[in-house]
Specification:
The chain has helices at residues 3-16, 20-35, 117-135, 147-156, 186-194, 203-224, 228-240, 250-261, 289-297; strands at 47-51, 65-72, 83-92, 97-103, 141-145, 160-164, 168-170, 175-177, 180-184, 243-246, 268-272, 275-279, 282-285. With 305 residues, it is α/β, with parallel strands linked by helices.
Length: 305
Amino acid sequence: MTHTHRRRAAFRLLIAIPLCGMLVATSLAAAWLALGRPTVASGAVWFQLTKVGDAEFSGVPDAPFFFLALGNDARTDADKGLGDAIHVIGVNPATRQATIINVPRDTQAPSGDKINAYSALQGLPGIVDQLNRMMGISIQYAVTVNFPRFVNLVDEIGGVDIDVPIAMDDKDSGAVFPAGPQHLGGESLLAVSRNRKDYPIEGDVKRTENQGLVILATLATLRAQNPGDAGALRLVSILARHVVTDNVSLVDMYRLGRLGLSIDPASIRNVTIPTGGGAGTNLAVGPGGAELFRDFADDGILQSH
């Protein structure tokens, strides 16, 4: 059978099987026929994906799902880096809705220490534990990326379309852009994510909120490519070659990818937690934080905030 015939046969097989469990198995088989079985971390590493929770993600829409997206400030792979972009994402597969809870890097963890230090001190499990205790949730997966890996990832997908919220002129971060729709490559999108000096009063809080906008813009850009099942398989096959995984299977990656691409960014809330006073920049969770976390924890989405 020729390569083209194998691709067509695999696609017909993908369409023919409606049940989720069988779909996963045959879809992965189709992708491997068409693209070659992916070898995890066989290329340049873009990010790390870790399973940190006890519960097995099944893709069944009967429970909320919690995921940590963590950007660290390491400039090289040899550095551990501080967790300076902290975003807990709750997904409700049943309603196809989600919420991004943005946690400013200076927020005080339940331990009393600053939350961003846990990425460097105890890795993903350490910061996940503090966030679980703070919000009353159980994060099952966490992904982390440093500066150069973020740039490479964005460039590889062809850049991201984003509506820059204000005219930016922060030369320290490199964010010098007019307000409005932009198509940005990796270096420019990283600059938007790092900009805080254009916000003299709410610098880190607004930066954290803008990082949530970057996540939403990236999802919208990928969905605009209309990937469908075949495109999702291709994406997983590509990503598998550029990810370091810990207790995560290719089936997990496929299910996570399909779930993410099934959610309209317009149905995703982007909310930053309130912060109060504290010693120096070690800021306590502010008034209303506990109620926000309870609203988030029960089903992954916000009803009253």
